[in-house]
């Protein structure tokens, strides 16, 4: 990972998104520490996001979980700390992949109690800002209505086939930014799953617009989301793609092109957390 992080820094990236559940915090922390030592970047220039895992949502576990993440990342504060998923599982179920969870693994802490502990992290200077991830509209409203420190962001799956307009509108009305994960439809997952998912890069509308602008399909997908006012976290280990992703700032889509792309919305979700579908806080029971 060290070379990938160094390439990203050289390309101009400063925001790095990780999570306790990804098992990448330690490798990222080591790489960023080396980058700081070699004067490639300073800590104040970096914006690091990590997430409270679904197996650490009981209020007695929140502070210790962030401290573990900070130790992994080799930093003394996090810029943004998110509640990864509103549904919770037991601590002892930590290593069970989300799709494989069963009702025996479920835990039931009150997410308002979890949020109160998140607020204490800001009070203690351990987190500069706190937010949500994979929360539906009613869950966002419940947290926001009860918050002393408001969530600054809701990180959600969002791409041309899952545009989440109603959820985005709810967040924006409450001054909560929206970060789009899987903004390209996770083509890497498609490869690993033998084409199980839908390929945005083969979508005729996207290909036609890309040809018109002399851009890649990925750039069109990202620019579409950017013009909707979303924050983007595309995943890549390829230096050329890192550069191309940044170049989306250098062109704009027309109103007509945006309208054509908006018509691709078909509620196709890749990350459905099916192992949690019977949990009372499962976020995707609601339409948005």
TrEMBL record:
Gene3D superfamilies: NADP-dependent oxidoreductase domain. Signal peptide: none annotated. Keywords: Oxidoreductase. The record marks 51 as: Lowers pKa of active site Tyr. The active site is at 22 (proton donor). SUPFAM superfamilies: NAD(P)-linked oxidoreductase. It holds the Pfam family Aldo_ket_red. It comes from the Eukaryota. This is Aldehyde reductase. Residues 7-264 form the NADP-dependent oxidoreductase domain. Its EC number is 1.1.1.21. GO terms for molecular function: oxidoreductase activity, acting on the CH-OH group of donors, NAD or NADP as acceptor. Substrate binds at residue 84. Transmembrane segments: none annotated.
């Amino acid at each position: 990972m060290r070379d990938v992080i160094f390439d990203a820094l050289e390309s101009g990236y400063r925001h790095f998104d990780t999570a306790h559940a990804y098992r990448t915090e330690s490798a990222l922390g080591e790489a960023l520490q080396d980058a700081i030592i070699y004067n490639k970047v300073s800590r104040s220039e970096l914006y690091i996001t990590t997430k409270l895992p679904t197996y650490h949502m009981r209020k007695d576990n929140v502070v210790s979980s962030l401290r573990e993440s900070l130790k992994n990342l080799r930093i003394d504060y996090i810029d943004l700390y998110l509640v990864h998923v509103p549904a919770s599982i037991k601590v002892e179920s930590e290593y069970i992949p989300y799709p494989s969870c069963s009702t025996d693994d479920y835990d039931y802490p009150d997410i308002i109690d979890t949020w109160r502990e998140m607020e204490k992290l800001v009070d203690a200077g351990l987190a500069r800002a706190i937010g949500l991830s994979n929360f539906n509209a009613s869950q966002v409203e419940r947290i926001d209505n009860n918050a002393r420190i408001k969530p600054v962001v809701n990180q959600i799956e969002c791409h041309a086939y899952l545009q989440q307009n109603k959820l985005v509108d709810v967040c924006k009305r409450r001054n909560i930014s929206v970060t789009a994960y899987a903004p390209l439809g996770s083509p890497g997952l498609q490869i690993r799953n033998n084409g199980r998912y839908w390929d945005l890069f083969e979508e005729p509308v996207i290909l036609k617009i890309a040809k018109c602008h002399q851009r890649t399909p990925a750039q069109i997908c990202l620019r579409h989301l950017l013009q909707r006012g979303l924050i983007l976290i595309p995943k890549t280990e390829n230096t050329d793609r890192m550069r191309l992703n940044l170049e989306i700032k250098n062109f704009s889509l027309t109103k007509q092109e945006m309208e054509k792309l908006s018509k691709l919305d078909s509620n196709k979700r890749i990350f459905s957390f099916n192992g949690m579908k019977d949990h009372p806080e499962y976020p995707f029971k609601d339409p948005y």
